[in-house]
Amino acid sequence: MSWMSAEQAAAWHAVVAASIGHDLPGESAPTPEQVHARLTTAAPDGRRLFWLAAEDDGAVVGVAGLRLFTEQGRDHLAELELHVHPDRRRRGVGSHLLTTAIFAVQVERRRGLLTSAVADGPGDAFCAARGFLRHLTLSHVLLDLAGADDSAADASHPGYERIAEIESVNAEDDARVLAVNRRLGFLPYRRTHEYRLDVTP
């Protein structure tokens, strides 16, 4: 589907919230309003397709979203988001959604499917078992602002913008970047793997 009702968006949010709550305890899931806005607003850099997997009683147990990039240089790619409710995993729901998404990617004549997964999590194993190739690792660092002295941030610093989070590429392999992050008070809190699957028929 390329359009989603409010009820379907709510079901999507429930699956995503349960998935994130299980796989990333302590991390906040997107709000229902954020999910509804993302699912019902046109993407500026591509078209979107959605699938919901439901049981016989209508309960939605898995969701998948596909972004088909339209910008030049990336119009041969698609990006996948896939979540399965923790209570319904290992029953083929994720595999079925992935197969459906791959078929759609091929119909759209895209050559590559991109996705990401938290390192060492269920999604990481799912991707590795289904032929995705890891091409990038992102190390995320976080600064706890609760006890930080931000008085200097009130001063004018031309050319700089105050931010709360920095994302570094392969920071664990770059001792100099890690050292700078630590001196600034940033601490590693999560690693994600970026994957690509060749879907050329």
UniProtKB/TrEMBL annotation:
Keywords, ordered alphabetically: Acyltransferase, Transferase
UniProt xrefs under Gene3D superfamilies: 3.40.630.30
The protein's name: GNAT superfamily N-acetyltransferase
InterPro entries to which the protein is assigned, alphabetical: Acyl_CoA_acyltransferase, Bact_Acetyltransf, GNAT_dom
Pfam families: Acetyltransf_1
All copies of domain N-acetyltransferase, residue ranges: 1-201
GO molecular function term, any single one: acyltransferase activity, transferring groups other than amino-acyl groups
Source domain of life: Bacteria
